[in-house]
Amino acid sequence: MSRFTAALAAEWRKLTSTALWWVLALGMAAYLAFVGAAMAFSLTVAPEGQAPPLGGLDAALTVYGVLNAVGYVFPLVVGTLLVTTEVRHKTLTQTLLAEPRRGVVLGAKLVLAAGIGLLYGVAGVVGLVAAGAPVLSAVGDGAFLGDPQVVRALLLGVLVTGLWAVLGTGFGAVVPHQVAAVVAILAFTQFVEPIARLALGAVDGLSVVSAYLPGAAADAVVGASLVSQMGDVDLLPAWAGALVLLGYAAALTFAGRLTTFARDVV
Amino acid sequence: MEAPALEVVGLGKSFGSVRAVDDLSFRVEPGRVTGFLGPNGSGKTTTLRMLLGLVRPSDGRALVGGHAYAEHPVPGALVGAALEATGFHPGRTGAAHLAAYAPQVGVGRERCREVLEQVGLTAAADRKVGGYSLGMRQHLGLATALLADPPALVLDEPANGLDPEGIVWLRGFLRHLAAQGRTVLVSSHVLGEVQHTVDDVVVIARGSLVHASSLSELAATAGARTYVETPTPERLAELCAERGWTCAPTGAGHEVPDVPAAEVGAAAYAAGLELHQLATRGADLEDVFLRLTGAAA
Fold first, then answer.
1. Which domains does chain B have, with CATH numbers?
2. Chain B residue closest to A10 (CA)?
3. Which residues in chain B have their CB less than 8 angstroms from residue A9's CB?
4. Rounded to a whole number, what is the distance in Å from the CA of B219 to chain A's nearest CA?
5. Which residues of B touch A89 (CB under 8 A)?
6. What pLDDT does A264 receive?
7. How far is Cα B207 from Cα B194, in angstroms, rounded to an integer?
8. What SS3 state is found at B238?
9. Residue B85 confidence class, pLDDT cut points 50, 70, 90
10. 10-residue stretch averages of pLDDT, chain A, 266 residues long
11. Which sign does the torsion angle of CA B211, B214, B220, B225 carry?
12. What does the DSSP assignment read for B169-213?
């Protein structure tokens, strides 16, 4: 076993030997099931005599699009936990005794984050489809699960969930305090970025900036989201959105390597 | 088994304006148990962390077998270390804690069970560490250190939180490991805790070396005391004053430091002083330790 695969195996065992990872995965599936069903109802059910807000494929795409729009807090949090639990419980000492090359440790955490993020993406898709699709087909015009556009949106949603987890690990390396990191993530994703996107979108010349915010970049990969439909925002091409997310992850990881992972561990 | 010596050379560390360790040099030999002693806050843990690559030295070097810890291909298999009882995730079982580090030192899950049995944690192996007592955590730390069957061991305050029975067990266990030729470095802030375990002592205070020798050499610097019991203590006090000895009451009798029992007995006989007890008391190493570590003030 090479040094890196040994470190990766150790990270995997650390993550899966406590309950949090599957509790969060279940939470993500349940949350997306709830939001998916609620969204499907609100898009397809209308008062007597009025047309539903969206129909057909558009309704299906919007429902399946919430995977990224509302689900990305979960992979972000699990990504940061790979670093912050080690700091919180002082297991980082043991980790660095086993592998003193800190770049190897951080690299193993990033790779594990990507894998676990994809797994979270699958959990989210399962929850979303399990609750959203029956509503769409029973009340609306159909679930459209076989439609290539729907399949693409779901697959890209899984991919983006993986990217969010990697970004989360980079963020955890910069803000290793567990409570601070989780609070910062919730504040940024639920409050700061949505407002910033709407505000920037309202100002001519600044809406181009908002496309580079991480949430907007993720929307660009998937293709649509609630917030980008509310504001009149230009999104980047899908590939560029993915690159922007990777860029955030790389910058955060680099900063974390120079701070948390360069410091004396006392 | 080729056990590495541990060595620090001119080691120094500053945290901001605080000089935690200063110009520290000593060597820890294989096949012996070495006690690394000093009061709390004297720089022991910082020194051990520099030795293990967790803290970067400001000056000097800390070496394992002639190289920095991190330069060894599988450092965790060369030096087993237990640094603090708090480094466990409370939601992880003891067995899972060991299994998480097993891949990097190249051992399997059977070996995890083996070391758990060695430290007497088999029954608690599948319980979460959050429910462990301090003593059990110490034992789990020791099991982690032993995981790769390493030729060198570095244990930070391993006797903390152990009951007397546990301390006796640890003593025998460490002696056994050293007898196999391993290098064993054990830190403590109480000399008495490791007095019956160690061959060599390294004493530091305020980050600097104050003494390094074998334990017997340290004991030799202590000087013997003579314990005397007499029904007429006021006459003993007169006698001591006459001879220029100090005479301190202790328990039911008195202690005369730095004077051999034979000399005290002869003087008492000559003075017609009735004695009920006359005994040599061993060197009080704890006193020596306190004197050494206090002298650096």
1. 6-220 (3.40.50.300), 225-281 (3.30.70.980)
2. B100
3. 103-104
4. 33
5. 86-90
6. 94
7. 20
8. helix
9. low
10. 93 96 96 93 79 78 86 95 95 96 97 98 96 89 87 93 97 96 93 88 81 89 61 76 96 96 93
11. positive
12. HHHHHHHHHHHTT-EEEEEES-HHHHTTT-SEEEEEETTEEEEEE
- Spans of all domains in chain A: 3-258
B158-196 pLDDT, tens per residue? 988 888 899 999 999 999 999 999 999 999 998 888 888
A167: tokens are: 């970004």
Assess contact for A194 and A227: CB atoms under 8 A.
Answer: yes
* B91·A7 Cβ contact <8 A: no
Q: What tens digit of pLDDT does each residue of B272-292 get?
A: 999 999 988 776 777 788 888
Q: Which two structure tokens, joined as six digits, stand for A133?
A: 């699709």
Most A-contacting residue of B46, B51, B89 (CB-CB within 10 A), to test interface: B89
Run of H or E including B15: strand B6-15
A2 touches chain B (CB under 8 A): no
- For residue B176, what are its two tokens? 């056994």
| Residue in B86, B88, B101 nearest the CB of A10 | B101
